[in-house]
Specification:
Distance between the termini: 32 Å
Radius of gyration: 15 Å
Order of helices and strands: HHEEEEEHEEEHE
Strand content: 25-35%
Shape: globular
Oligomer: single chain
Low-confidence stretches: none
Mean pLDDT: 94
Number of helices: 4
DNA sequence: TCCCCGATTAACT
DNA sequence: GTTAATCGGGGAG
């Protein structure tokens, strides 16, 4: 347990608070063969309670159970039958909130401009699937989060790919960062923070 | 059980 | 810009 890791209390607040502050943080993955993968998070989205766009809206089910558990755990789900998406659980037990990790910059063990550009690609690049749903990012040995460089400026805009509550400005990106997703780039510039 | 649809992506025209 | 791929969740019956 590296001192650079975030403690659970760091994640124990609203998703809209966690989403901007984990920009610049490092997501680290230890593969079965021992190889280390490291990426820098550049784009996130918040999904809170009382949020019609969230999987947690409507209460706990088998799929979203992790969202209702302890903060600082990894919530993984399958979309469109093909792609996995990675989320960090926020707030705490019974709340049902999380931050979706949408794009990252490869720092170590990965090559290519697009490998982490988009939530499905990010999960694939790190070799994470449903088997990792519920993994403890504050203590686990296979995947975790560490403090990184604080971004100079953060931009906010509407979330991507949803139809409900699409107007909420809960997508956060490092302003001007070349590694953000295609959707973030195409969308409105968004307001600064 | 049946059925619709999605927090996406890549491969088209 | 448009669309197929692909499958499990969850509401309806």
């Amino acid at each position: 347990v590296s001192p650079q890791r975030f403690a659970r209390t760091f994640f124990s607040r609203a998703a809209t608070d966690v989403a901007p502050v984990i920009l610049g943080a490092h997501l680290v993955r230890r593969l079965p063969d021992g190889e280390l993968l490291r990426v820098r998070i550049v784009e996130t989205e918040a999904y809170g309670p009382q949020d019609p766009a969230s999987h947690a809206f409507g209460g706990a089910t088998r799929r979203n159970a992790t969202m209702f558990g302890d903060a600082g755990h990894l919530y993984v789900y399958l979309v469109y039958g093909l792609h996995h998406c990675l989320n960090v659980v926020t707030e705490g037990p019974g709340r049902g909130s999380a931050v979706l990790l949408r794009a990252a910059e490869p720092l170590e063990g990965l090559e290519g401009r697009d490998v982490c550009r988009g939530p499905g690609r990010l999960a694939r690049a790190l070799g994470l699937d449903l088997a990792f749903d519920g993994a403890d990012l504050t203590r686990g040995a296979e995947v975790w989060l560490e403090r990184g460089e604080r971004p100079a400026s953060i931009a906010v805009g509407p979330r991507v790919g949803i139809t409900k509550a699409a107007e909420r400005p809960w997508r956060y990106v490092i302003e001007g960062d070349p590694w953000v997703s295609r959707a973030a780039r195409a969308g409105r510039a968004g307001s600064r923070r």
